[in-house]
Write a structure and sequence with these properties.
By secondary structure, this protein is mostly helical. It has one domain: Na+/H+ antiporter like fold (Up-down Bundle), CATH 1.20.1530. The chain has 17 helices and no strands.
């Protein structure tokens, strides 16, 4: 499929779903598009079963979409950069201990617990899946994608410390999860004799992780500071937009060539540019227009992702066993998310106080989204990939629809009852 065909398909489908949602469903944009896309996909699947030529052609068109390339070589970096721009970096620095503890410790705990639990669960179904692949599923399902939740937190006017903690954890959680997935994918490839991954020892794995994570943060910091120097020297809105768009693309392209994490580079660049331009508002011709532009980019890309997510549903091979395993994984993931949040809270309890609503919002607001699906599509083709795709879809649909539609009430309750100074 050509870039023009893909762009036309995405824009037209997204516009149609967004119109139906705004006119009839009236749900939050990303959730409404997902629900509408799910219904559209099910309708097309029914037409495919009836061998309708149009539906068969649509499925073949969707099969040509390189979902993981679309997400990881463009969309993800733009989303994380836009999200980082909107975070108060000074408040984030004040919560750097809790944020990094949640991003690193919680993610590592989640990957290990999900991988171990899935290995045991698959064994009960007589499915022989290597432990490293179960850990790979843990890495792809652990990153949270609470874009809609952050909007609800702002709307509900929850305490800024809660908003900053949730936003910071989600940004770095995504980056760390993607790096962990790359490490485990390399180990799986090396163990199977295909591809080149890190050495199968602790030093090799830690070195690979450090190269991806630290290298990405350093790259983002360097490019972000150069972009800031450029922004400070001009006062033209068009030039400012071109500089920041070029910054995100440069972070992605250079990171791919240097084999470091593009998502973490985008996060570091966004935090740095947002922080430095906040200190010197004169560095931007119009802060309001600048923020509005990146907010629009953020909203549009999220809607595109969820529309593409719905389209991909048509090419996944569903089985009753895979659906059952996906449904059994949902409560398992919620339990593990609870544990992975509570452990850092317990360890940090002497130095930081966490209100009950902070923990509840982090647990129930830890939505899984398009990032998990994109990672699932990068698993090597075969029965394991098909199984993981179905399980991931079940989890993501539950997360977006059930958790996404109810977390707003929890956020509103937190906004009414929590004092503004509480975390």
């Amino acid at each position: 499929m050509s870039l023009l065909d893909l762009s036309t398909l995405l824009v037209c489908v997204t516009a149609g779903l967004a119109f139906v949602n705004a006119r009839f469903l009236k749900l939050p944009a990303s959730i409404g598009v997902t629900v509408g896309g799910l219904l559209l996909s099910l309708m097309l699947l029914g037409l495919v079963a009836l061998r309708v030529p149009f539906a068969l052609s649509a499925v073949e068109t969707v099969r040509g979409i390189e979902f993981d390339d679309f997400v990881f070589q463009g969309v993800l970096s733009f989303l994380l950069f836009a999200g980082a721009l909107g975070v108060n970096s000074h408040a984030l620095w004040g919560l750097r201990g809790p944020v990094m503890s949640f991003a690193l410790l919680s993610t590592a705990l989640s990957i290990a617990l999900v991988g171990g639990a899935l290995y045991g669960l698959l064994g009960l179904f007589n499915l022989d899946v290597p432990l490293v692949y179960c850990l790979l599923f843990g890495a792809l399902i652990s990153p949270t994608d609470p874009v809609a939740v952050l909007g609800m937190l702002k709307q509900a006017k929850v305490p800024k410390r809660i908003e900053t903690l949730v936003a910071g954890e989600s940004l770095f959680n995504d980056g760390v999860g993607v790096v962990a997935f790359a490490v485990l994918a390399g180990i799986a490839a090396a163990g199977s004799g295909h591809g080149h991954g890190p050495d199968l020892n602790a030093v090799g794995v830690l070195g690979f992780f450090a190269q991806e994570a630290v290298g990405g943060l350093v790259l983002g910091g360097v490019l972000g500071y150069l972009a800031y120097l450029t922004l400070r020297a001009v006062s033209d809105f068009v030039v400012e937009m071109l500089v920041t768009l070029g910054l995100v693309l440069a972070c992605t392209a250079v990171a791919l060539h240097l084999h470091v994490s593009a998502p973490l580079a985008a996060v570091a660049a966004g935090l740095l540019v947002g922080s430095l331009t906040d200190r010197m508002p004169t560095a931007l011709s119009s802060r309001e227009k600048f923020d509005s532009f990146w907010h629009l980019i953020d909203e549009l890309l999220n809607i595109f992702l969820f529309a593409l997510l719905a389209l991909e549903l048509m090419v996944v091979r569903f089985t009753a066993q895979a659906l059952l395993l996906g449904m059994l994984t949902i409560p398992l993931l919620l339990l593990i998310r609870t544990v992975s949040v509570q452990v850092p809270v317990f360890l940090l309890g002497k130095r930081h106080e966490f209100s009950p609503y902070t923990r509840r919002l982090m647990i129930w607001g830890g939505l899984r989204g398009a990032i998990s699906v994109a990672l699932a599509f990068t698993v090597p083709a075969g029965p394991v990939r098909d199984l993981f795709l179905v399980m991931t879809y079940v989890v993501v649909v539950f997360s977006i629809i059930v958790q996404g539609l109810t977390v707003g009430r929890l956020a509103a309750r937190a906004g009414r009852q929590e004092p503004q100074a509480a975390a």
